[in-house]
Amino acid sequence: MARWIDGTQIAKTVRDDVAQAVALFARQHGRPPSLHVVLAGDDPASAVYVRNKEKFAAQVGLAGTVHRLPQSVSEEELLTLVRRLNDDPLVDGILVQFPVPPQVRQSEVLRLIDPEKDVDGLHASNVGKLWSGRTGLVPCTPRGCLRLLDEAGVALAGKRAVVVGRSNLVGKPVAALLLARDATVTLVHSKTQDLAARCREAEIVIAAVGRAKLLNRSFIAPGATVIDVGMNRDEVGKLCGDVDFADVEPIAGAITPVPGGVGPMTIAMLLENTLLAAQARSAG
Ligand code: NAP
Known about the structure:
The chain is of the alpha/beta class. The chain has 2 domains: about 30-115, Rossmann fold, CATH 3.40.50.10860; about 140-265, Rossmann fold. About 45% of the residues lie in helices and about 15% in strands. The protein has helices at about 5-30, 45-60, 75-85, 105-110, 125-130, 140-150, 170-180, 195-200, 245-250, 260-284; strands spanning about 5, 35-40, 65-70, 95, 160-165, 185-190, 205, 225-230, 230-235, 240, 255. Strand 5 (about 160-165), helix 7 and strand 6 (about 185-190) form a beta-alpha-beta unit. The structure holds NADP nicotinamide-adenine-dinucleotide phosphate.
């Protein structure tokens, strides 16, 4: 049976470490680092994500607030808020929760956010830094995946890793991070032929697809490490990943459950990114 990689526990350790570092920053600088979240519109899932971010940010001692804007907000109003946060020296991290209402272009929002405050790591400048090996802010979920692998003691250098999904949010940055750690990385996607065979070649599989239980044991080599980013609902409405956990667990070497795997790491990494942004700004 596969060893479980416990994201809930690892995320708690990260949050405890961040809380200590936040307290130290506050003593040194006379204020804690601050995270400002912009929530535009009434998407129910976004509202839940933002409430959790708010709760954990307060728990580790970060300052900041959630800026709630109506569904009818104009692009200019939202961009004006982002400019104000960019210009405010007391703001360290800015996160605009996506999706934004349809009249607001996500690309314009991402273009405007100060890369030094871009705690989601999605600004083109941070994407470029990630792929060229320079230090920038890295997207939270991909960083969380790498942290889980590290905490589970999975060696990466020289290992064959397959990333299923090529989104800018998860698949591509995970691939960049694995590559930077000397894994041999294959990115597969909806046009890939014989997906199961490509995945079976891997010692490490990262699934970021958004299809409930797509990866069953025919996709996984015995003993492989499986990181499941997916957050889906199964046929009875229960939260599940992209991996068919019950089918894969008996043959994998290590596996993340859903819930309790990658999910808790995403917010923990957001808190850590805010701390890193504050430290970099105060040093620079
Ligand atoms: P996305 O933007 O929809 O991208 C999905 C990717 O999967 C695309 O590259 C797509 O290929 C590929 N794909 C779709 N169907 C496929 C198939 N049948 N076979 C092979 N590849 C297929 O999704 P995302 O934002 O990356 O998110 C992926 C999953 O992770 C979702 O379930 C999401 O809810 C979850 N997620 C979880 C967290 C967390 O904190 N745990 C954070 C972010 C996302 P094409 O490019 O060819 O279309």
